[in-house]
Amino acid sequence: MTTPTVLPHVDAVQAALTAGGLTVYLGGTPTSTGWTPPDKFAVLYPDPGQAGRASLADERTDLTVMFQVTCVGASMERALWVADRVREALSGQLTVAGRAAWRPEDQGGPPVQRDDDVTPPLWFVPVQYRIQSIPS
Does 117 reside within a domain? Predict the structure, then answer.
């Protein structure tokens, strides 16, 4: 029995987003002094996943992972552009070594919002996705 791990799934999502032409940060943006945000980017926030039973023998080999991609832009249009690129990048099958993964399932999110706590203000929209995988 192979216990599923979340990090290869997070890596697969990040790789798909990067291959889709997006600048992607994991768990937040850089905090270094002088960092200037690009005019559009995505921030990936994964959860630790949930291992589920694949059989009555209590073999926990199935994995479900929820994650949020916060789509950020210098304008509302740029934030929505990022959301469109995220949706496109996650429309295909993810490649996770040793696993058969479902296509990411779009769970939606709230309306676009403006963040006036940063200078200059940015627009953002968090979109949630769910992925599931089983041993291949």
Answer: yes
Can you tell me which residue has the tokens 């968090």? 126
38: containing domain: 7-135
Please provide the DSSP assignment of 7-60 as one string: HHHHHHHHHHHHHTT--EEESS---STT----SEEEEEEE---EEEESSTT--E
Residue 1 domain flag: no
User: Which two structure tokens, joined as six digits, stand for 52?
Assistant: 């589920």
Give the C-alpha separation, 104 to 33, whole Å. Answer: 35
Q: How many domains does the chain have?
A: 1
Using DSSP bridges, classify how beta strands 24-26 and 40-46 pair: parallel, antiparallel or unpaired. Answer: parallel
From 72, 94, 117, select the one nearest 11 (Cα to Cα): 94
In a domain, 2, yes or no: no
Q: Could you report the per-residue pLDDT of 60-114, keeping only the tens digit for each?
A: 889 999 999 999 999 999 999 999 999 999 999 999 999 999 999 999 999 999 9
* Residue 38, preceding peptide bond in cis (omega within 30° of 0): no
